[in-house]
Hints:
Distance between the termini: 21 Å
Helix content: 40-55%
CATH topology: Rossmann fold
CATH class: Alpha Beta
Structural class: alpha/beta
CATH superfamily: Vaccinia Virus protein VP39
Amino acid sequence: MPNPSLEKIEQFRRQLKSDWTRDDTVSAWRKWHKQIAEFTRGATDAVLAEANLQQGQHVLDLASGVGDPALRIASLVGPGGRVVATDVGMGMMSLAAELAAQQNLGNIEFKEAAADSLPFPDGAFDVVTCRFGAMFFPDLHKALAECRRVLKPGGKVIFLVWGTRDQPFTTTTVGVLLNFVKPPEPDPDAPSMFMFGVRGRFESALKDAGYSSVKEDHLSVAARWPGSVEEFWTQFTEVAAPFKPLLAQLPPAKREDVRFDVIAGLQKYVKDGHITFPLEVVLASASR
Length: 288
């Protein structure tokens, strides 16, 4: 695993916060949250199945964004349970808070917090969850140590991250975009979207952090986009924070060429009028 310097970690931390708390990114996630929640429901279901939550449990959810899976967790642990949803900024979680109020979920709170510096006492939670967040942690080793610290003895952590880069979700979007624009050379120490696509990598990180009963599963979960193909691409261009700068580099005519090729590629996965394809993910779990 990369072992970046403190200076690099701070640089990664600043970039993470910039990418995911920008006003335009927050607005886009608020705009598309219903469709994204349906599209990624299979991933959320996988986290919840592995967590096997019980009434009355206290759960910490990291990188909660607009509320998946934190809101569903709150409904599962019941009024006697407690959920703390966290993210690097309050922007997206403001929508999650609104949805919680609409659903009369009084057992959830929202707190700005970084995964590698959690403002909670030792042994405060029965379960820690994180869906599509850990691959962006600036200091993975410290984040895993912090998660272990705030777990009760015997408590469980569940992470779901992207798997292999070579899957329909990316070959039809990012893969097409990279035919038109060359990204800057990546820092080998930097966190990245597909860093856990290598089998055993997350398992090794959890073992190094002192966890027991470590498990890593590579899964395909069904995904169905509820809108049109054109809406899917528009949504991607607005919410995919790491790739928006690449699109911005292209002149309008080239952006239209990208859109044309993406739409053509996505049409191959249309079934009954909707995009349907598997998401290749990694589900990693362990106990304190």
